[in-house]
Amino acid sequence: MSATTAVPATGAAMRRNVRLLFFCQALMNSAVVGQATMGALIGYSLVENKALATLPMALQMAATMAASIPAGMVFARLGRRAGFLLGATGSFLGSLTFAFGIWEASFLIYCLGAIPAGLGFGIAQHYRFAAAEVATPDYRPRAIALVMAGGVMAAALGPELVKHSKDLFAPFLFLGTYLILAVMPLVCMALLSVVALPPAPPRAANATPVMEIVARPAFLTAALAGAVAYGVMNLLMTSTPLEMMLCGFGVPASATVIQAHAVSMFAPGFVTGRLIGRFGTRPVIMAGVVLNAACVGLALMGKEFHHFTAALVALGLGWNLMFTGATTLLAEAHSPAERVRAQTANDFIVFGTVACTAFGSGLLHAAGGWFVLNLLVLPALAFALWRVSRRPARLA
User: Fold this and answer.
1) Among candidate residues 41, 3, 23, the one with its CA nearest the CA of residue 245
2) Structure pTM?
3) Cβ distance 357 to 190 under 8 Å?
4) Distance of CA 41 to CAs 37, 56, 170, 185, Å?
5) 242 near 53, Cβ under 8 Å?
6) Does the domain at residues 11-198+210-390 carry the CATH identifier 1.20.1250.20?
7) Rounded Cα gap, residues 125 and 204, in angstroms
8) What is the CA radius of gyration of the chain?
9) Contacts of 382 (CB under 8 A, 6+ apart)
10) Are 361 and 239 in contact (CB under 8 A)?
11) Is residue 51 exposed (0-12), middle (13-18) or buried (19+ Cβ within 10 Å)?
12) pLDDT by residue, tens only, the chain of 396 residues
């Protein structure tokens, strides 16, 4: 195998690599799903100013955004394996720091845990890009969708861990959960030792400037769709456990709703690639926009358990269609030599948006309530629908 050959591109070897990436994605997402269930509740219990309850999640998303640049450098210089090992290490240290913050009842320490955790989450987002790189062009949408479907395992595992381990070290609520979540990235490291991953790309003598890549219509559409998909999802998901708590629901109920949401986020990955192959990328993204709008309608119909569940299921389905479609569009917006710079720029935009929504979620919920919070996502969805319907995906 030459230095520029990534991995075997056809047959059983390709599918084996996709399966291993599926499990790596599942393990790394378990901590994120668990954090979505616990983070706002722990923040609410540790901080006096309740508007800051979602600050740890906001810091985690800011770290995820910031991780895109060093991650791009590591991927470009050392290859995918070194980058993913760095991400697993960050996730491990983040879980331990979260646990220490709970032990010390310190909101500051708990917030500090969000920094390495965000680094790990940011780097883990590149598993979907690695899936595109190990697959042949005709199999690429399915490979991306299947690796993203690793979140199904995380959806089943993360909330269940929260429900069954939250009282392991009572009265330190959720301490045991974080100690268990620290094991997940260690298992991921073991899988990374056997999966075949692309090496660092060859360095081009005249590299395309990042701004030239960012200015391409296909890139702009992909980045916008990804940012709106993740931003809307994060804004509403982060506030749901808080709203449920204010409505009298306990941790098991909110964990069940987050679990249903997470399953709906990732389970469609088994078919989304086929839908893109049959109907095209842009129609699938537009269907995701419609589902996200339906989430708002369902959320505003009432505040019973089934209202929260139905709304977040629609939200998860919409996210999957939009984000998988956006990732597929991004793969068509750059050449192989440009992949790391394009992916880094894309994730900086996407997770910068997510960081803003994570912080804004607590502020908006405290200031305007559940009704206003839901209505505010509609303009962003309308703009994404307009952009995707007008701009065809093309390389330049």
Assistant:
1) 41
2) 0.72
3) no
4) 8, 11, 16, 24
5) yes
6) yes
7) 25
8) 20
9) none
10) yes
11) middle
12) 333 344 444 678 788 888 899 899 888 888 877 777 787 788 888 888 877 877 888 788 888 888 877 877 888 788 889 899 999 999 999 999 999 999 999 999 999 999 999 899 888 888 878 887 888 777 877 888 778 777 777 777 777 788 788 888 888 888 999 999 999 999 999 999 888 887 766 665 567 787 888 888 889 999 999 999 999 998 898 889 889 988 998 878 888 898 899 889 888 877 888 898 889 889 999 999 999 999 999 999 999 999 999 999 999 999 999 998 998 888 777 777 787 788 888 888 888 888 788 778 878 888 888 999 999 999 999 999 999 987 554 443
- In this structure, are residues 149 and 95 in contact, taking their beta carbons and an 8 Å threshold? no
For tokens 């979602």, name the residue. Answer: 54
Q: Which two tokens stand for residue 272?
A: 């989304």
Tell the residue number behind the tokens 């992909």, with chain if given. Answer: 222
Q: Where do the domains of the chain lie? A: 11-198+210-390
Two structure tokens written together for 14: 């390709």
* Half-sphere exposure for 19 (CA within 13 Å, toward CB): 7
Closest by CA to 121, choosing from 184, 213, 52, is: 184
Cβ(295)–Cβ(236) below 8 Å: yes
Q: Are 27 and 188 in contact (CB under 8 A)?
A: yes
